[in-house]
Amino acid sequence: MTGYPAGAQVAQNDDSQMARVVPRAGAPVSFADLTEQLQPAVVNIATRQRVEVEQRGNSLAELFGMPQRSAPQGGAPQTREAQSLGSGFIISADGYVVTNNHVVSPSGRGTVEEITVKMPDGKEYEATLVGADAASDLAVLKIQSDKDFPFVEFGDSAQARTGDWVIAIGNPFGLGGTVTSGIVSAVMRNTGGGAYDRFIQTDASINRGNSGGPLFDMQGNVIGINNAILSPSGGSVGIGFAIPAETAKPIVEQLKSGKTIERGYLGVSITPVDDDLADSLGLRRNRGEFVQLVEPDAGADKAGIEAGDIVISIDGKEVTPDQTLSFLVANIKPGTTIAIELVREGKTRTVRALVGKRPTEDQIRERQMFRGDDEAEMPEQSEDASPVIDKLGLQVVAINAEIARQLRVPANTKGVAILKVNPNSDAATKGLRRRDIILTANYKPVASIADLETIVNEAVAEDREAVLLQIQREGGAPAYRAVRLR
């Protein structure tokens, strides 16, 4: 299938009188000609989702303190339909579309039932999700047609320089195809230290709905995928972020071919080396990362890396704020042995570590759920934590071998662990706290979140105002607590 690439790519293979549409050096006279060629390959993406929500009582009755009627089916969760809008762009004549994973992933406890791609001319196509990767926030869709699609191609984002002109095309606020222009404000911007937290920053206006749309250079090549904004108001304030093409392109190719994205993993929790830490250890500033925690039996642990070490290079590449340890290791193939240079007690040493396979983001969150007792460091509620238990004023998670290890209980322990207690709830009044394990509810064993949900819903259906919980606390004997429902 030959097709025709949109934008400046047309001129590369066209011997006709059409000239490459590139604005002159310096401030462009107009972006109109370039936009006209690029826009046909930029699409709107809409999803239809089925989201599970908890059915609550009558809000008016709650307001005036009146008795509430029991919800149907004992307050069982209900479902509602939801929609989301985003942007994307076609990268091949046969209809492969690139967007952000969060544009096409389900919201909360939901499922995506339909994905629709809408062309600039209004024609719509049902899309199939080919592959998605949460860590890099990328997804690839496929649409079908008897005719070739217009498409754009990835450029070399490594050549992007601060001050270069760029244009963004997307679907902000569901308005339809919208074009904004600006410059590259920064390259390799690190906003949080994640494995793929390196962005092109731009002041081209990016708003809600632009996610997944392309950021073009003046040659009409995609150098970034619009991903996020930094804004106190929720609207554009001139600080937008795009995933660099050099990061996105290899991941997109793997997703297209149906491959699983495998990343390297050492098993350490790290923090940047700030000025005070650098001064206290006599280190050069803006170099290295501090090891806070080493995961037992992971690659770092087996290599002899310890909490308190400062990792300064990975396989000869210096660890810096722009080139973090997470980024370097994630881009190493699992099973590779690497040299790690570190500083311990003022002395530099080198160890060799076998790089493991990075767990999923959910698995990583799970492993960190009960590390430390600081509530401020508790991760966001995972998919395993149930909003239905809000009636008890609790967030809970099912116990598996990993959670049991963190709680220092036998691996075969049955129950659910408390992640968080609402300070305004009766559970807090009764002394329940994080890390407590719920063994039974109303004398029935609780082996899963679903078990606890069922028992709570039964209590609601029977107009009971409390549930009797059997609680196991570390170092103590099991005890019963009757907790009022909210």
TrEMBL record:
Subcellular location: Periplasm
Active site: H102 (charge relay system), D137 (charge relay system), S211 (charge relay system)
EC number: 3.4.21.107
UniProt entry keywords in alphabetical sequence: Hydrolase, Periplasm, Protease, Repeat, Serine protease, Signal, Stress response
Range of residues in the leader sequence: none
Catalytic EC class: hydrolase
Binding-site residues, substrate: H102, D137, G209, N210, S211
Protein name, per record: Probable periplasmic serine endoprotease DegP-like
UniProt organism field: Pontixanthobacter gangjinensis
Organism lineage string: Bacteria, Pseudomonadati, Pseudomonadota, Alphaproteobacteria, Sphingomonadales
